[in-house]
Design brief:
mainly alpha, two-stranded antiparallel ribbon, 17 helices
């Protein structure tokens, strides 16, 4: 498996287009390849070339690509803006509205020197100002309002109000679907405002996510509007919330993508090999790789001592 991934990644580095550019799940998978096969082994120049290839092909705004590119540039490659101003400026034109300059610097550019730090803030603000002229500000305000009342109900642990808010937000989400024909995502809203809308969708009923909107969410991954890790998390979360009580014990179905943990144990999937195929289809790395990053153990026998698995 590793040999095949390395071969595909090397083809990408040579400029061979081995994937359909129209499917953004492939961009996410290539980020995983770069992280696991190039950055891990200290091949920073090769990683940089591969990242440039992705940003040339895709209007890519998601956190895993941004953090990998920023860390690679400032912490591993050459570290200074003056030496790589053209490359860094190339990245930030594509990072616009993905993260605020402060977030980008605080989380992803810890190695940046003071000159780089100040220049990044300036360039981010400039490109953000261009991007903001293209967004639907009315939709952004609506997403913020929906998210705010959702979070307030959760903070107050007011379960009656949570149900009321979820019902009101569902009505608004249906209106958005009717108006736009889909859920606008990161390319239309920018990362921060996209998160507001995504979290409201995440908190709707399991039936909406698993039945009514499932195919739509899959398409939004392919279109580059929703991140695969977040959609997979919403689907697995909906499966968990759709559980029941059997013999005084909480009982759930197997999750699909293995994205949730319980007491440092991965909530099980039915078949890891099949799960990895599903994960690959939406651009997620193999479950084993993800578990290692999370520091999570996979042990179904231990898990079912506390939570029953419904095998259907």
């Amino acid at each position: 498996m590793k040999t095949k991934i390395l071969f595909v990644c090397l083809l990408s580095l040579l400029g061979v287009n081995v994937y359909s550019v129209s499917d953004y799940s492939n961009a996410h998978w290539r980020i995983y390849e770069i992280e696991s096969l190039l950055v891990k082994d200290g091949l920073f120049d090769s990683a940089n070339n591969a990242l440039i290839d992705i940003f040339n092909q895709y209007d890519y705004r998601f956190a895993e690509g941004i953090s990998l590119a920023a860390d690679n540039l400032f912490c591993n490659l050459h570290k200074t803006w003056n030496k790589d101003s053209t490359i860094i400026d190339f990245y930030f034109r594509r990072f616009a509205r993905s993260y605020s300059a402060d977030n980008l610097l605080n989380f992803f550019c810890k190695c940046a020197d003071s000159i780089t730090y100040n220049t990044i803030k300036e360039r981010c603000s400039f490109y953000d100002s261009i991007f903001i002229t293209s967004v639907d500000t009315a939709l952004i305000r609506k997403a913020f309002m929906m998210s705010s009342r959702d979070q307030e109900a959760i903070r107050n642990q007011d379960y009656i109000m949570i149900r009321i808010v979820d019902s009101l937000n569902l009505i608004e989400l249906e209106k958005i679907l009717e108006k736009y024909g889909t859920f606008p995502g990161v390319k239309k809203l920018g990362m921060l405002d996209y998160i507001d809308l995504r979290m409201v969708i995440h908190h709707t009923s399991p039936k909406q996510i698993l039945d009514k909107w499932y195919n739509l969410l899959m398409q939004l991954i392919k279109d580059g509007e929703f991140a695969p890790s977040e959609v997979a998390g919403s689907i697995d979360d909906a499966i968990i919330r759709d559980g029941t009580v059997i013999d005084n014990k909480w009982a759930i179905k197997y999750t699909i993508y293995g994205t949730y943990d319980y007491k440092n144990l991965c909530i099980p999937v039915k078949d890891i090999e099949q799960t990895n195929k599903w994960r690959r289809e939406i651009g997620l790395p193999p479950l084993e790789y993800d578990l290692k990053k999370r520091g999570t153990e996979y042990n179904e026998a231990e898990f079912i001592k506390e939570i029953k698995i419904i095998d259907e």
